[in-house]
Amino acid sequence: MLVIKIKEALFSQCKAFVNKRAKTVEEIISSNQKALQSETKSSAGDKHETGRAMLQLEMEKAGQQLAGINQMKEILAKVSVSKTSKIGHLGSVIYTDKVNYFLSISVGKLTACGDDFFAISVSSPIGKLLLGKQQNDEVVFNGNAIKITKIG
Questions:
Q1: Which of 55, 78, 101, 104 could hold 94 in an S-S bridge, CB 3.0 to 4.6 Å?
Q2: How high is the mean pLDDT of the chain?
Q3: What is the pTM of this model?
């Protein structure tokens, strides 16, 4: 079935996006840990302390990013690409008269089987509007009426 093939392609692109981001953040954390370990106390004490504080802030920021990535992984683990439904839910492919959506995680524009889709989170404003909707339903987003033409 074409819809399942599209969902599988979109899902794998979302997984690749998350894995790439996780690898980047883990590299940043590793690099900062090495830099922290190599920071030695110098005669310019204030400069040393400032450098350590900056590295510590970078580590905290990377830690927050890693937490967000883990949350994305948890959401993806709940997505079922083998099932189709007539009602918009996590894992749905939603075709509209404007653009097409994949309800999963916020990744942005993806392409599958020659069609463009926007991978969006169900907690995003447009994602919340599309949840629970059916074919031929209409939603209004930013003052624009969007008609759902198909859900898979």
A1: 101
A2: 91
A3: 0.86
**Does 106 share its domain with 70?**
no
Give φ, ψ of 10 to 5 degrees: -65, -40
Farthest-apart Cα atoms in the chain, separation? 71
* Rounded CA separation 27/33 (Å): 10
Number of domains forming the structure of the chain: 2
**C-alpha 126: how far from its chain's center?**
14
Nearest CA to 85 out of 134, 14, 137, 146 is that of 134
What is the per-residue pLDDT across 15-26, written as a single tens digit (0 to 9) for each? 999 999 999 999
Residue 19 covered by a domain: yes
As given in the structure block, the two tokens for residue 73 are 């992984």
State the angle between helix axes of 2-38 and 45-77 in degrees (0 to 180), rounded to the nearest 10. Answer: 160
Residue 35: give the domain boundaries: 2-77
